[in-house]
Amino acid sequence: TVMRNHADYTRRWYQVGKLETALYEKLRVQRWKGKMPTYHPTLFDPRVHSWDEIAQAMCQAELVHETIALLSFLPIAAGLRFGAYPVFIVTSVLSAGYDLLFVMMQRYNRQRIMVLLERKRTSSACAR
Known about the structure:
With 128 residues, the chain is mainly alpha-helical. It contains five helices and no strands.
């Protein structure tokens, strides 16, 4: 892991806008996100890591899945050698779509964690 699960989740790339939030609600991400497999569940376990660390790991996971989604279109170039472009196009689109489900899940969950972190910061600032 190049980033070692450290990322600045306040950067613009990781921010979720209102339209994106509405899309996630429309797609009912909350209903299906728990059914998705997790490669390394302990990275996202609040009993093992702080919410801040989990948010950073989510950023790295998002970047990995975005990269895989982009790279899933490379096999289309094999159509030059083998023909059958429709097969390569369909499998590439399906593969990218599957990885984008993980991106949506990471962004949806991270936004919720950001709200939690902000509440903690606000409550600790008020307690002083």
